[in-house]
Specification:
disordered N terminus; about 35% strand; alpha+beta; about 425 residues; elongated
Length: about 425
C-alpha cells in the first residue's frame, strides 16, 4: 500500500500511475493505426476491382472483342473516312484480255528523203524535236543542182536577148522598114526562149529548188509533227534513196491488236473499246476503225485497228497494252465495290458491319469467295461469304486491315 508522508502522496505512487497511463495511450494508438490500415487496404481493393471492371469494359467496347473484329464509334467512322455500303445485285461483265500495241497512224506519217544526191552541210533539227510544215531540216550542197541552176540563168539571158530583138523588129515592121518575115522570126525566137525558161523553172520546182540557191538545197518538213527517226549527220554524202527523217503526228495514234475468230461478231467499226497500259490501272478508250476481211493464215486471228479517243503522256508509239473485250451476256450477280477488298493472311476479305449498338459499329473481317471483276474495275462478284443487303465497309478498309495487323503484333509481344 501506498502511504502519505507528511500529508503528501508518495513518489512511488506517482511513478506507477504515469507508467500505467503511458501503456494505455500506446495500446490505443496501436489499435487505431491497425484499423486505419485495414480500412485503406479494403477501399483500395474495391477501387482496383472497380477500375479493372471499367477498363475491361472500355477495352471491349473500343478495341478488339475477338480476333478479326473491331468496334468503332460513329465519330471514328467519320474521322477515318470510312464509308458503309450495302451488298447488292448488279451486272458484272465478263472481260477477255487481249494483247495489243499502240502504233502511229501511217496516214499521218512522213518519210523524208533528199531530192538530190549531195553533201550534207547543215542539220538543223534533233531527234524528238517538234517541227512545223515547211521548216528547214537540213542543207545540202548539190553539184547537179548547180548545173540546172546555170541552165536556168542561161535560158533567162537568152530570153532577155530574144525579147529585145522581138521588140526592135516589131517597131521596124510597124514603121515599114523591116520585112514581115524578120518580125515573125524574132517573135518565134522570143516564144521559144520563154518556153526554155519556163521548162528550166518547172524542173527545179519539181525537185523542190529554185534558181537562187547557188547549188544549195534545203530539205524541208512536208508535215508538222515530231522527228521520230533521224539518219543524217554533217559531212556525209546522201543519195536519192536514203531515208533521212521520219516525222510522226503523235496526237493521232492507233491501237492495233489481233482477235480470235470467235470474237469477230463482237467487234464492229465505230465500236468503243477499253484498254489499259501494261502496269497501269488507268482505263483508256479507242474507236474501232477497221477489221481485216480475212483471218491470218498462220494464227487464225483478225487484225483490228482503232483510233485513240483522247491523249495522255503515257500513250506513245510501240507501248504494249491490254485490250478489254466484254462478253455480251453479262449476268446479274451479288457484288461489292472493288475498293472494299483486302487480303488478310492470304485470303480475300471484306469488313462487314456485324452489329450496331448505341452509336457503335461492331466490324468483322469476313472471308469471301470472289468471281469475276467488272471491265471498269469498280465491281467484284461475290460467290460466297456475303448476303444481299448486308452492310460492309466500301471505302477505307485498308485502315481496318492496318489496325488488325497492329493489334496482332501487340498480342505477340
Amino acid at each position: 500500500m501506498f502511504v502519505k508522508e507528511n500529508g503528501k502522496i508518495s513518489q512511488s505512487l506517482i511513478i506507477s500511475i504515469l507508467i500505467i497511463v503511458t501503456l494505455l495511450i500506446s495500446l490505443s494508438i496501436w489499435w487505431s493505426s491497425n484499423k486505419t490500415q485495414s480500412d485503406e487496404h479494403g477501399d483500395e481493393a474495391k477501387n482496383t476491382e472497380h477500375h479493372d471492371d471499367e477498363y475491361g469494359k472500355e477495352s471491349h467496347e473500343d478495341g478488339h472483342a475477338d480476333e478479326g473484329e473491331i468496334t468503332l464509334t460513329a465519330q471514328q467512322i467519320v474521322e477515318q473516312g470510312l464509308k458503309v455500303d450495302l451488298v447488292s445485285t448488279g451486272l458484272v461483265e465478263k472481260v477477255s484480255i487481249l494483247p495489243g500495241k499502240l502504233v502511229v497512224n501511217t496516214d499521218q506519217q512522213a518519210h523524208v528523203s533528199p531530192n538530190f544526191s549531195g553533201h550534207v552541210e547543215q542539220v538543223k533539227v534533233a531527234l524528238g524535236q517538234n517541227v512545223k510544215q515547211g521548216q528547214t531540216l537540213a542543207m545540202l550542197t548539190v553539184p547537179e543542182l548547180i548545173d540546172q541552176q546555170s541552165s536556168l540563168r542561161i535560158a533567162q539571158a537568152n530570153l532577155d536577148l530574144a525579147r529585145q530583138d522581138y521588140q526592135r523588129e516589131q517597131t521596124l515592121w510597124s514603121q515599114g522598114i523591116s520585112a514581115k518575115q524578120d518580125y515573125q522570126r524574132a517573135e518565134n525566137a522570143y516564144r521559144q526562149a520563154q518556153i526554155s525558161v519556163q521548162s528550166a523553172q518547172a524542173r527545179l520546182r519539181a525537185l523542190g529548188a529554185d534558181g537562187n540557191q547557188n547549188g544549195h538545197f534545203s530539205i524541208k518538213a512536208p508535215i508538222s509533227g515530231v522527228i521520230s527517226q533521224k539518219d543524217i549527220v554533217v559531212g556525209e554524202n546522201v543519195q536519192l534513196a536514203d531515208q533521212l527523217f521520219v516525222i510522226e503526228q503523235l496526237n493521232d495514234l492507233w491501237l492495233e491488236f489481233n482477235v480470235p475468230n470467235q470474237f469477230s461478231n463482237q467487234i464492229q467499226a465505230g465500236q468503243k473499246i477499253q484498254f489499259k497500259v501494261n502496269g497501269s490501272n488507268e482505263n483508256y478508250s479507242a474507236i474501232v476503225q477497221s477489221l481485216t476481211s480475212q483471218a491470218d493464215t498462220q494464227t487464225g486471228r483478225l487484225i483490228v485497228r482503232a483510233k485513240l479517243d483522247g491523249e495522255a503522256a503515257e500513250l506513245r508509239p510501240n507501248v504494249m497494252v491490254n485490250v478489254l473485250i466484254s462478253e455480251p451476256t453479262a449476268k446479274s450477280v451479288l457484288r461489292v465495290k472493288k475498293t472494299a477488298l483486302q487480303t488478310i493472311e492470304g485470303a480475300d476479305t471484306i469488313f462487314i458491319v456485324e452489329s450496331e449498338q448505341k452509336g457503335q459499329l461492331h466490324l468483322k473481317a469476313q472471308k469471301v469467295q470472289l468471281g469475276q471483276a467488272s471491265s471498269d474495275g469498280q465491281w467484284l462478284e461475290i460467290i460466297s461469304g456475303l448476303n444481299a443487303g448486308q452492310k460492309y465497309i466500301a471505302q477505307g478498309s485498308f485502315l481496318l486491315k492496318s489496325e488488325l495487323e497492329k493489334d496482332e503484333a501487340g498480342h505477340e509481344h
